[in-house]
Design brief:
The protein is an alpha/beta fold and about 375 residues long. The chain is built from 14 helices and 12 strands. Helix 2 packs across helix 10 and helix 8 crosses helix 12.
Length: about 375
């Protein structure tokens, strides 16, 4: 249909644009018209809008988007306004798509959200909700690395320079007293920036000794004989830290607040269903991955990966601020002004209506 064709053309143009420094991690990139969720008979368009374009990655840490699309929660909340989807494999391309208007709302990691906000002086996006916590691990070759201190002198992969996991690993290495140049990755430990799609092959070939990566890459490495040496959640208070946010174009939020509320309602309903039906949700996420990328995850990867992710409506705002501080300390980001990065009013409105507790923006909300 026309909306999807236009989205495909826009995304093709985006591929030629320069990418931002901070990136998230993902698998594959394509635009896709959601075919599973049919518009209910008699449903009406919200704000008269034909469609809303929703971006996400083919990662299990974006499970809310995967399941919400697959099971039709977004479409149900949107009525006759179509839920279109666009799949990305890196944060920069999704931020560019948001800036250009090729997508309206997106699921994305904290580092590209911070970068996108600061690069535009706070003018292009707002974080409007949380989605997931956890799902990040340091997996190593047990023949080469038997303890945390053995990581020194080894080659450890992260998904991309300055991405969320790259920042986390550099911060952890610094806390061990090790020195690493953030740009080259050289130092007491060598950081190898490697796309998640090729990291398992790099591990098998021995070109890296381990990796600090999100799911399902971490569990893919374990399936290849790797050992989980550290779960990042153990480093955070209450073992919670933001791994996936929901963002929106500020212009879209201003013009179509009811549509934004509908997508957030779909997200809240999806998370509620995921947490009540973990096995069915896992299967739905895997089905969506298969439809988006052409390949489902095997059980020995899917099962442990899914267990390590917590799906939550709370954006865990205080941890976003901490992650920004880690990027500054690592030398990858100038001290950012994050005041106004959150607008949680639409989400809290939805949560109140659902009888759920509201969430906090840690003092970083839009005034």
């Amino acid at each position: 249909m026309p909306a999807t064709s236009a989205l495909r053309r826009s995304l093709a143009a985006i591929a030629a644009l320069p990418l931002l420094t901070l990136a998230a991690c993902g698998y594959g990139s394509q635009a896709k018209d959601d075919g599973e969720a049919k518009v209910a008979a008699g449903a009406k368009k919200i704000d008269g809008l034909d469609s809303v374009k929703i971006g996400y990655f083919g990662n299990l840490t974006h499970g809310t988007a995967l399941v919400g699309m697959q099971k039709g929660f977004f479409q149900k909340a949107l009525g006759a306004t179509e839920a279109d989807s666009a799949i990305f494999n890196a944060g920069p391309s999704e931020i560019e798509a948001l800036n250009s208007g090729s997508i309206d709302i997106g699921w994305i990691g904290p580092s590209p959200a911070i970068n996108g906000y600061t690069k535009s002086a706070g003018k292009n996006l707002r974080i409007i909700g949380g989605s997931a916590s956890g799902g990040v691990k340091l997996v190593v070759n047990p023949d080469k690395i038997k303890s945390l201190k053995d990581v020194k002198g080894k080659r450890i992969a992260t998904p991309q320079l300055g991405n969320t996991q790259d920042v986390a690993f550099l911060n952890w290495a610094a806390e061990q007293g090790w020195k690493v140049d953030p740009q080259s990755g050289k130092g007491d430990v060598t950081v190898v920036r490697s796309d998640n799609k090729v990291t398992p092959d790099a591990y098998k070939s021995g070109s890296v000794d381990g990796a600090w990566v999100p799911e399902p890459t971490a569990s893919k490495l374990v399936a290849e004989g790797g050992k989980v040496l550290l779960d990042e959640s153990s480093l955070w208070p209450d073992k919670k830290f933001v791994i996936t946010n929901i963002i929106v174009r500020q212009e879209f939020l201003k013009k179509h607040p009811k549509v934004v509320e509908a997508v957030l309602k779909g997200s809240v309903e999806t998370n509620k269903w995921i947490n009540a039906n973990p096995d069915q949700a896992k299967a739905a996420a895997n089905k969506r991955l298969e439809e988006d990328s052409g390949k489902a995850l095997p059980a020995d990867v899917l099962d442990p990966a899914w267990k390590s992710i917590q799906f939550t409506d709370d954006p865990l705002a205080s941890t976003l601020n901490t992650e920004a501080e880690h990027a500054v300390k690592a030398g990858l980001l100038e001290k950012p002004d994050l005041n106004g990065i959150y607008d949680l009013a639409p989400l809290n409105k939805v949560l109140k209506a659902e009888g759920e507790p509201t969430v906090d923006d840690a003092g970083l909300g839009a005034k």
